[in-house]
Each structure stands twice: as structure tokens, then as C-alpha cells.
Design brief:
Quinone Oxidoreductase, Chain A, domain 1, Rossmann fold, 2 domains, seven-stranded mixed sheet, six-stranded parallel sheet, 20 strands, about 30% strand
Length: about 350
């Protein structure tokens, strides 16, 4: 089989591997679609992010869907031919954090396409993948597998909402409307947020944000003071999700937060200087959010039942052989939102 391997920044290659055979509790999966994530782009463009760097060639990708092509001898709940979304998260189930129900913090986590461990955990952008049966989630007959590949970024958004606590009836700000921010907005709509404000520096994501449920959109590149009205009376925003990784976006959001508001940091950025006096004076809660676990099953159910419609987020689908072009396109935020790779497309002659 072929897999998409990052050898160094801007060095993507199609490497050939021998396909694994599933063990007793595993499934063999023919990958259909894969979504390019922000972390994939960091590996491709820069060789990593923060202190996490690629130290050996690594197969990229963790947002995938496909069809079961072989079933382990001990697996009874799945059969060949079923269509699934694949959770990239494979916690050990026995460490301290797994026993506390914090599987996303597993000490032995095997998360596809991650250089956080060494040897790295190889990713899912490959023609065939062997997974544990616990990672498989059935996709409804009516849901295209392309949309099922959105389950992972939607899970990230749903976990962020969980970290915020109740958003019901609240005024919420989302800064950064990439695919995760956009799917987060759709999740906020289902969670009962009263008024959702989406802020970004480009029009393409803001148009999508309105489609997915934002009540108000603000292009901060054209209107730098667009959030100013919400700074009145010590601030009017009750919950903020910072999904851009921008220190400027975070700082601007803190100015409009209401006292005892909750700020959830979703986007990965560098080290940021935070105005501690403002946090203290407003009694703000600043919370991190990292990956997900039980939210993946919920995300698949939402997509299956069309309770969340992810179609507006998908802007481009390219063939597997065009993967390098797909990565370049995914890095163009003025044109693209979620870029998918079609692994079932026939190889070029």
C-alpha cells in the first residue's frame, strides 16, 4: 500500500509499506477520505509546532473514514463492508488518567500522526489501516464518507464546549473560524447558546460561520474595532473560544469578557503574554482543551442524524495523487476551509 509520509518540512512523499493484518480484536480498513488538519499543516510547513518536531519520517493524518475490509477473529460487532468513521485516539485504558476518565491525557496514548512520542505514532493517510475495533464508529447509510471524516474536528469542538461548562442562554464569542472553530459554532448552536459572534480576518470562513449558526460575524481585518461595543459595562461576552492561536485575538477577546466569564483556549499558538491584572480584576477563568475521547461517538451521531451538517465546511476534495497540492491549498486560508483527500480515487496513469 501507499502512504503519505512527511520526511522534512515541505517534503511529502508517497512511500510504500506492506499492509498489516488485523489481530483478534482489530479491523482492517480501506481508507476512503482524510481531512487535512492544522497539525498536519504544521508538520508539512514547519516540521512540527512548539517543541514537537518530526525526528523521523512520519505518515500524516488522523481525520479519516473508510470501509471495513477484514475483521479480527474475536470481533463480533462489525462485519466486512460496513462504513465507519475512525477515531484516531487509542488510549491504553489502564494508566492513572484512563482510570480517572481522562483518556485524552493517557500516559501511553497512541494518536495517529503525532510526533509527540518517539518513535512517532504513524498516521492514517494511507490506503489501508489496521485499527482496534473500539476505534470504529458506524456511519449511517445516508451520510457520505467524505462528511464522516469531519467527526474528528467536530469532536475537538465538542470537547471544547464541554470544557467551557454550560453555554445555554449565553453570549459566546468564537475567534478563529477554521474548520474546528466552524464546527464548534455548529455545536454551540445545538448546545443552546443564545448569541454566537464569530470573528476572523477573512470573509470565506465568516460566510460559513453564518451558515452554521453564528448570529453575527466580524471581519477584524476590515473592522479592527468590531468587538468594541461588547466592551461596555466591563464586558458583555460570557464565554469565549479562542480558536486561532493568535495572541492578538486572545488579548482583544479578554477586553470584551464579562466578569467571571470563561475563556477556552482551543487554537495552538506560541507562548503568549497574558494581562494578569485583567484576569484578576474580572475574575476570569482561562481553560485549556486538549483533543477528546467520548465526544467522538457523539460527533458521529450528530453527523449521522444531520443534527450538525458539516457540508459547508468542506471546500475542496482532491485525489490521493494530488496530496501535495491539497496541502498547499489547505494552507491558503483565503480560499480553503476543510480540504479532503480522496483515497479511493484511481491512481494517475
Amino acid at each position: 500500500m501507499r502512504a503519505l509520509v512527511c520526511h522534512a518540512p515541505l517534503d511529502l512523499r508517497f512511500d510504500t509499506f506492506v499492509s498489516d493484518q488485523p489481530g483478534p480484536t482489530e479491523l482492517g480498513v480501506r481508507i476512503a477520505y482524510g481531512g487535512i488538519c492544522g497539525s498536519d499543516l504544521h508538520y508539512f510547513q514547519h516540521g512540527g509546532f512548539g517543541t514537537v518536531r518530526i525526528r523521523e519520517p512520519m505518515v500524516l493524518g488522523h481525520e479519516v473514514s473508510g470501509a471495513i475490509e477484514s475483521v479480527g477473529s474475536a470481533v463480533t460487532q462489525f462485519q466486512v463492508g460496513q462504513r465507519i468513521a475512525v477515531s484516531p485516539s487509542r488510549p491504553c485504558g489502564t494508566c492513572r488518567y484512563c482510570n480517572l476518565g481522562l483518556q485524552n491525557h493517557c500516559m501511553e496514548m497512541r494518536f495517529y500522526g503525532s510526533a509527540m512520542r518517539f518513535p512517532h505514532v504513524q498516521g492514517a493517510f494511507r490506503e489501508h489501516l489496521v485499527i482496534d475495533a473500539s476505534q470504529a464508529h458506524l456511519v449511517a447509510d445516508e451520510l457520505p464518507l467524505a462528511e464522516a471524516a469531519l467527526a474528528e474536528p467536530l469532536s475537538v469542538g465538542l470537547h471544547a464546549i464541554t470544557r467551557a461548562g454550560s453555554v445555554f442562554g449565553k453570549r459566546v464569542l468564537v475567534t478563529g473560524c477554521g474548520p474546528i472553530g466552524l464546527l464548534l459554532i455548529a455545536g454551540l448552536r445545538r448546545a443552546g447558546a443564545a448569541h454566537i459572534i464569530a470573528a476572523d480576518i477573512a470573509d470565506v470562513p465568516l460566510v460559513c460561520a453564518a451558515t452554521l449558526g453564528a448570529d453575527e460575524t466580524i471581519n477584524l481585518a476590515r473592522h479592527p474595532g468590531g468587538l468594541a461595543p461588547y466592551a461596555l459595562n466591563k464586558g458583555m461576552i460570557e464565554v469565549m473560544f479562542e480558536a486561532s492561536g493568535s495572541d492578538k485575538a486572545l488579548r482583544g477577546g479578554l477586553d470584551v469578557m464579562a466578569p467571571r466569564g470563561v475563556v477556552v483556549i482551543v487554537g495552538l499558538g506560541g507562548d503568549i503574554s497574558v494581562p494578569m491584572n485583567l484576569l484578576v480584576a474580572k475574575e476570569l477563568d482561562v481553560r485549556g482543551t486538549f483533543r477528546f475521547h467520548q465526544e467522538f461517538a457523539v460527533a458521529v451521531r450528530f453527523l449521522n442524524q444531520r443534527l450538525i451538517d458539516g457540508r459547508p465546511v468542506i471546500t475542496h476534495t482532491l485525489k490521493f495523487d494530488q496530496a501535495a497540492d491539497a496541502f498547499k491549498l489547505a494552507g491558503d486560508k483565503g480560499r480553503a476551509l476543510k480540504v479532503l483527500i480522496d483515497f479511493n480515487a484511481p491512481a494517475a496513469a
